[in-house]
Request: fold
Amino acid sequence: MKIPNSGIKNIKPISKLRSYNKLLDEVTPENPVILTKNGYGKYAIIDIAEYEKYKRTQIANELAQIVDNARKGDLHSLEDVKREIINR
Reply:
């Protein structure tokens, strides 16, 4: 997959990993490094704080979807969802 122009400015070929200390110094919460392989986006190196924020957002989105489905009665009752959230 070619990397679209998504505002990420730090795009490097994977060969830059040979000098990984220099490469890792460029990674900040506001500045991930995208590595390409054969001209295509392959890996993202992000700050651990950004990764944790991403994971929290992902979990929150999943829980919001579960609650939304429960309200609609699609999959689970709201009580089942509350129990699931409390037990996480």
User: Anything to note?
Assistant: The mean pLDDT is 82. The chain has three helices and three strands. The helical segments are 20-25, 48-72, 78-86. The CA atoms of residues 32 and 46 lie 5 Å apart.
